[in-house]
C-alpha cells in the first residue's frame, strides 16, 4: 500500500484502509457493518432505530460475523444514552460515533473506558467544540451528503475544519471512488466516510427494488427538505417527498400526528418519550408543531422504504453522489476497487 494511504485514521481505529462506512438507520445492520470491517475498512452499526435489547443483539451478531474492529453510532440525546454507553463499554466496542455532537460527559466516560470517539459535524465551530472536549477524530459532512446536512460543500468545509483542529478529520459527502479518497487526503483529511456508496452494495440489507430505484437516479434527483423532520434533510426526490414539500401547516399537522400513531404502533415507543423528544427538538431547533411530530416519527418513514421495501410510503436519505453510482459490488470488491484506483492516482502524481 502506498505510504500516503496509511493515515492516522488507520492506526486510530485498527483498520487496514482509511475508509469508514457511516451509521445509516435501517441500513447499517450487522450484515453490512461486518462486511465492511472484514474488507479492511471501519464498519459502523446504526443504533438510533434500535432499542437497547436490539443493540445488544446487534453487537453480539457483529462479534459472530467479524473479528475486526467496528463502531456503533449513537444519539447523544437518546433517553437511554447512558445505558447504551455502558453497553458499548461492557462489550468493548472499538469506536463510538455520534450523528450529532455528544455531551461532554459521555465523551469522558467513553474515553476513560478506552473507546475511540468520533462524532459527525457539519460546521467548523462544532468541530472546535468537540475537539476541545477530547474526541479522537471527527467526520466532516459537506452539503452533498445524504440525510441531515448543512449548506457548505465538502470542498470548502473540509479544509476549514482541517485547519481548525489537531485531530484526524474524516471527509464525508460526495465520495465514492479512489479519486475522491486521494482528493480528501490532499485537503488534509485522514480518510473518507461513505453512506450512499455502501448502501448500494450487495451486502446492504436494503431490498433490491429500492436499490434499483437509487441506481436510476441522477445527481439532480435529490432534494434538501425540512418537511421530513424539521431540519435540512437530503433525500431522493420522490412523489411522496414532493407532496411533503407542498404541504401547508394546516394539513401537515394532522398527517404528522397520524404518522406518529403509526410509528408508535410499529416501534413500541412510549408516548411520553415521543413527546419528550419532540419538545426538546422544538426548543433547540425552533420547529413548527407539525415538524416536531414528524421529527419524532421520522424513523417510521425511513423504515417503510429501507426495511419494508415501500419507497412509496417512506423517504430515502441519499447523497448527491447517487448519480455517480452504477453497480452493486460487495463491500470487499468496492474497497479493493477504491484502493486500487487511489494507488494508480498516487503513482501518476509520483511519476
Description:
- The structure is a single chain.
- An eight-stranded parallel β-sheet has the order 1-9-8-6-5-4-3-2. Strands 7-11-10 form a three-stranded antiparallel β-sheet, with no helix packed on it.
- The model has no long low-confidence stretch (mean pLDDT 88).
- It is globular and about 60 Å long.
- α2 packs parallel to α3 and α8 crosses α15.
- It has 351 residues and is α/β, with parallel strands linked by helices.
- The chain folds into two domains: 230 residues, TIM Barrel (Alpha-Beta Barrel), CATH 3.20.20.70; 89 residues, no CATH class.
Structural class: alpha/beta
The neighbouring-strand order within the major sheet is: 1-9-8-6-5-4-3-2
List the secondary-structure elements in sequence, H or E. HEHEHEHEHEHEEHEHEHHEEHHHHH
Major sheet characteristics:
8 strands, parallel
What is the name of the CATH class of the largest domain? Alpha Beta
The pLDDT mean sits at 88
Sum up the overall morphology in one term. globular
The Rg value, from CA coordinates, equals 19 Å
Write the CATH architecture name of the largest domain. Alpha-Beta Barrel
Going by CATH, the homologous superfamily of the largest domain would be Aldolase class I
Q: Beta fraction of the residues? A: 5-15%
Can you tell me the residue ranges where pLDDT is under 50 for at least 5 consecutive residues?
none
The beta-strand count equals: 11
CATH fold-level assignment of the largest domain: TIM Barrel
SS field, number of helical segments: 15
Amino acid at each position: 500500500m502506498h505510504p500516503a494511504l496509511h493515515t492516522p485514521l488507520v492506526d486510530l481505529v485498527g483498520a487496514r484502509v482509511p475508509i469508514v462506512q457511516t451509521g445509516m438507520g435501517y441500513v447499517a445492520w450487522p450484515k453490512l457493518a461486518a462486511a465492511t470491517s472484514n474488507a479492511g475498512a471501519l464498519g459502523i452499526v446504526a443504533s438510533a432505530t434500535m432499542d437497547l435489547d436490539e443493540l445488544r443483539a446487534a453487537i453480539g451478531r457483529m462479534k459472530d460475523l467479524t473479528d475486526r474492529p467496528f463502531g456503533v453510532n449513537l444519539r447523544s440525546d437518546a433517553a437511554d444514552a447512558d445505558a447504551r454507553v455502558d453497553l458499548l463499554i461492557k462489550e468493548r466496542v472499538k469506536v463510538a460515533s455520534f450523528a450529532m455532537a455528544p455531551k461532554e460527559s459521555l465523551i469522558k466516560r467513553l474515553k476513560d473506558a478506552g473507546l475511540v470517539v468520533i462524532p459527525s459535524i457539519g460546521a467548523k465551530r462544532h468541530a472546535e467544540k468537540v475537539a476541545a472536549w477530547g474526541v479522537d477524530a471527527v467526520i466532516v459532512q459537506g452539503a452533498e451528503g445524504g440525510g441531515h446536512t448543512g449548506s457548505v460543500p465538502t470542498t470548502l468545509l473540509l479544509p476549514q475544519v482541517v485547519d481548525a483542529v489537531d485531530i484526524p478529520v474524516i471527509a464525508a459527502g460526495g465520495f465514492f471512488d479512489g479519486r475522491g479518497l486521494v482528493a480528501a487526503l490532499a485537503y488534509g483529511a485522514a480518510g473518507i466516510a461513505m453512506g450512499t456508496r455502501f448502501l448500494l452494495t450487495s451486502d446492504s440489507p436494503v431490498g433490491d427494488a429500492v436499490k434499483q430505484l437509487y441506481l436510476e437516479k441522477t445527481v439532480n434527483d435529490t432534494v434538501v427538505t425540512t418537511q421530513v423532520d424539521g431540519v435540512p434533510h437530503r433525500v431522493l426526490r420522490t412523489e411522496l417527498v414532493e407532496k411533503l414539500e407542498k404541504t401547508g401547516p394546516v394539513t401537515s399537522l394532522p398527517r404528522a400526528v397520524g404518522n406518529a400513531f403509526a410509528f408508535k404502533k410499529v416501534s413500541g415507543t412510549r408516548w411520553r418519550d415521543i413527546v419528550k423528544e419532540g419538545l426538546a427538538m422544538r426548543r433547540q431547533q425552533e420547529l413548527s408543531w407539525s415538524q416536531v411530530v414528524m421529527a419524532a416519527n421520522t424513523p417510521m418513514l425511513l423504515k417503510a422504504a429501507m426495511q419494508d421495501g415501500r419507497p412509496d410510503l417512506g423517504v430515502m436519505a441519499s447523497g448527491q453522489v447517487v448519480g455517480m453510482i452504477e453497480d452493486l459490488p460487495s463491500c470487499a470488491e468496492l474497497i479493493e476497487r477504491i484502493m486500487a484506483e487511489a494507488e494508480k492516482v498516487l503513482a501518476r502524481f509520483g511519476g
